[in-house]
Amino acid sequence: MTGGSTKLDDASAKVKAGASVTLLVPAAVKAEPEGQAIPLNIVFEDEHLIVIDKQAGLVVHPAAGNRDGTLVNALIAHCGDSLRGIGGELRPGIVHRIDKDTTGLMVAAKTEKAHTSLGKQFAAHAIERVYKALVWGVPRERAGVIDGAVGRSPLNRQKMAVLRVGGKPARTHYKVIETFGQTAALVECRLETGRTHQVRVHMAHIGHPLIGDPVYGRPRSVPGLTLRLSRQALHAAVLGFQHPATHKPVRFESVLPEDFTETYLAFKGLGAKARGS
């Protein structure tokens, strides 16, 4: 504070009317996670943000049990000096996440301004997010809306669940794209909210868990069908938002990964055999 050069380091200090205040912003420091050279499928990148098509098996953010080898480590190594600092650190701004074994599109901010803008868009449910999923069985209603608050399961704290009391509001719009007899279906899910495991929890809640889901489904066998999918059949296929700098809408699409496609074709082939018999 000028006019006496008093240093204010107490957040509760009172400032008199008419006082002039000088704010000193410290330079961004290196992020605590270290950069690691992990291959990334980059869909789009500029000085403000980066969009990647995440592979299966890649954890998004360092946490207990996954201190390194994450998407954040990969982005720090890839972006390097192009990161402008998020929250005082030279790190990418993660505004949404995808499960470790879910594939598809994600956006990360490279500047504080982009991080704030994208965060507000996610909070306002203004981001277009479309997932493709293979589910067991065929929903009775071929299109609908699943409303159900999602929170920690009271029976298993390692899982999420639709809760009658508590949890966070969650809404998923689903549409059946293709059916394989009554055995399975290809479903499109549009997210209005973005809760942990939302698609997996909501589809299991209506009785149609994702194929290959080790948490919310159960192993099933189909005569004549060998499944090689070692994860949940879930792919973030579309991501759209307003660019934080140009304010123009941008939209990205991602093709289904190989293991998802192989599983889809296996069910399609099984359905064709059934119709020909």
Give me a quick take on this structure.
The chain is of the alpha+beta class and 277 residues long. It contains four helices and 14 strands. It has helices spanning 71-79, 112-123, 198-205, 258-276, and strands at 29-30, 42-45, 49-54, 89-90, 93-94, 103-109, 128-136, 143-147, 150-152, 160-162, 171-180, 184-191, 234-242, 249-253.
Detailed description of the structure:
- By secondary structure, this protein is of the alpha+beta class.
- Helix content is 17%, strand content 27%.
- The protein is built from 4 helices and 14 strands.
- Strands 2, 3, 5, 6, 7, 8, 11, 12, 13 and 14 form a 10-stranded mixed β-sheet that branches.
- The longest helix has 19 residues, at 258-276.
- The protein is elongated, with a radius of gyration of 23 Å.
- The model has no long low-confidence stretch (mean pLDDT 90).
**SS field, number of helical segments:** 4
Distance N terminus to C terminus?
85 Å
Shape: elongated
What is the average of the pLDDT values? 90
Structural class computed from helices and strand pairing: alpha+beta
Rg from alpha-carbon coordinates: 23 Å
Low-pLDDT runs of 5+ residues are none
- Helix content range of the residues, please? 10-25%
Instruction: Give helix and strand order, one letter per element, not per position.
Output: EEEHEEEHEEEEEEHEEH
Number of strands: 14
Reported for the largest beta sheet, the result is: 10 strands, mixed
Q: Report the sheet-strand fraction.
A: 25-35%
